[in-house]
Design a protein that fits this description.
This protein is an alpha+beta fold and 500 residues long. It has three domains: 207 residues, Nucleoside Triphosphate Pyrophosphohydrolase (Alpha-Beta Complex); 190 residues, Ribonuclease Z/Hydroxyacylglutathione hydrolase-like (Metallo-beta-lactamase, Chain A); 65 residues, Orthogonal Bundle (Arc Repressor Mutant, subunit A), CATH 1.10.10.10. It is built from 15 helices and 21 strands. Strand 15 and strand 16 form a beta hairpin. The two termini are 40 Å apart. Bound molecules: zinc ion. Zinc ion binds next to loops.
Length: 500
């Protein structure tokens, strides 16, 4: 599904230290966080309703300034606010105690500022850009970023919980760590850090001010890893459109995976991304398809012809697409696709049938990146049912993917994640639960697929019922093969019951 509703307002601080030269602070998010677990980020968080009351002016930037100040204080202990004589406070036990009370919800940020006779000054929070989370994530934020200086006499103190640690480095050092795959940066953090790395420390405020109104986060390339670029698009889905991720894998030479959008805006997003890469002198080597479903292949033929590149897929996908897309090379399980250059240029092809007979995933051993197509989704459950889906085969494919011990998962649906093992295990557990629910329902008597789907997927909206029925059929076929259920035909109507 496409995330509905407006993105939630948020604020973040690029904190730099006058003593540390051109160093900036990044905090690593804990693996338990729902949004971007394990990623490095600028300290920040959601705008609170109370932030508006403290804002030094009426604009969204002003409210975000207060949220930035509060979140920075909560997460790092740094308080950027000024007293009547114009200076920021130095670290002291009373502020430390206030921070603890704020985190425990016993006191508000406003009360702390009043108690300490402090106020937020606009000039301490220089606008650095506004970024909106793309549609691939069901959790979306519109984040206002600020450049701030660490006040003299204050330092960073992280309480573990939401954050694992804090790290000072120059922007260039952070980019180098990212390029080696040692530091995951969310797209806005990458964009801002990369920008700052291009200028001497002293000119950051001026350069950011120059750029702040020109940032179009929808056009910024989204790269979670150096050799994996994500292009968010809207694709046809079962019953309703879905957000999907088209990937560009590699650097100077690259593959395009699963060009599936039906609408003009999706095609334009892919075209823009390809054009930007060509402008850098990069070359598209081939289009890869994970499987034959329309949301993964809709633009394969058009783009293949337009870009004059071949389309590659599994033999079984080729057969299913034979009237629509010409597959010029069939890919085998275990073969390695080698790009001519780049640190991470080898992508191993792994046949993972179950959702679709010719389903492939692509794994880069050097980086541990796994491009998973529809084997795993981080937002929905994958439909596995007849005629082309097969549940027992699908479960084996999930186990095969688990053995890769991948470090980062790039699904077609949903945000990429570091929690690869957890996501795959979640998929396996989910199927187990559904099977138990099916057995439990059948223990109460014979039923048709439609009744089973309604009983097991309670409260599901009607456009999604066909997909639910398919899941139920997939489950029944597995149980039939195991001899646990049988299918009966009463006057043309099929129903299912347990084998005693
Ligand atoms: Zn699919």
């Amino acid at each position: 599904m496409i995330p509905s509703g407006e993105p939630r307002p948020a604020a973040a601080v690029i904190l730099h230290s006058p003593d540390g030269g051109d160093k900036v602070l990044l905090v690593q998010r804990s693996n338990q966080m729902k949004f971007l677990p394990g990623f490095y980020a600028f300290p920040g968080g959601k705008v609170d309703v109370q932030d508006k009351q403290l804002a030094p002016g009426d604009s969204a930037w002003d409210t975000a300034r207060v949220a930035a100040a509060r979140e920075l204080f909560e997460e790092t202990g740094v308080l950027i606010a000024r007293g009547s004589e114009g200076s920021c406070p130095v670290a002291n036990p009373s502020l430390q105690a206030a921070r603890k009370q704020l985190l425990e919800g016993k006191i508000s940020f406003r009360e702390i500022l009043e108690e300490e006779k402090l106020r937020i000054c606009s000039s301490d929070f220089l606008p650095a850009g506004v970024y909106v989370t793309p549609i691939f994530s069901p959790l979306r934020f519109q984040t206002w970023f600020f450049l701030c200086q660490l006040p003299a006499g204050q330092s960073i103190e992280i309480f573990t919980g939401e954050l694992q640690k804090a790290q000072w480095n120059t922007p260039r050092e952070f980019i180098q760590l990212w390029e080696q795959g040692n530091c995951l940066l969310s797209p806005p953090v990458l964009s801002l850090t990369d920008f700052l790395a291009g200028y001497p420390h002293g000119s950051w405020p001026g350069q950011l001010q120059e750029r702040v109104d020109r940032i179009d986060s929808q056009k910024d390339p989204i790269r979670f890893y150096p050799d994996v670029q994500l292009v968010p698009v809207v694709c046809p889905g079962p019953g309703m459109p879905q957000a999907g991720n088209v990937y560009l894998l590699g650097r100077e030479d690259f593959f395009l995976v699963d060009p599936g959008p039906l609408d003009e805006s999706g095609l334009a997003a892919i075209d823009n991304a390809l054009q930007a890469r060509k402008n850098q002198g990069h070359r598209l080597a081939a289009i890869l398809l994970t499987h034959h479903h329309p949301d993964h292949v809709s633009q394969a033929r058009y783009l293949g012809e337009k870009e004059k590149v071949p389309v590659w897929a599994h033999e079984l996908t080729r057969q299913l697409l034979k009237n629509t897309v010409t597959i010029s090379r069939t890919l085998q399980d275990g073969e390695v696709l080698e790009l001519p250059n780049g640190a991470w240029r080898n992508w191993r092809v792994i046949h993972t049938p179950g959702h679709a007979p010719g389903h492939l995933i692509f794994f880069n051993e050097q980086s541990g990146c796994l491009v998973a197509g529809d084997l795993v989704s981080t937002v929905t459950s994958i439909v596995v049912g007849p005629p082309e889906g097969h549940l027992a085969t699908y479960l084996n494919s999930l186990k095969k993917a688990l053995e890769l011990e991948a470090k980062m998962l790039f699904p077609f649906h949903g945000p990429p994640t570091l929690l690869v093992r957890e996501e795959i295990l979640k998929g396996l557990e989910h199927r187990e639960k559904r099977e138990q629910a099916l057995l439990e329902r059948l223990s109460r008597g014979r039923a048709t697929v439609a009744i089973l789907a309604k009983d097991i997927y309670r409260g599901l909206s009607s456009p999604l019922l066909p997909a639910a029925s398919k899941q139920v059929q997939g489950g029944l076929i597995k149980l039939l093969e195991e001899g646990q259920v049988r299918c009966l035909s009463d006057g043309g109507q099929e129903s299912w019951e347990l084998v005693e």
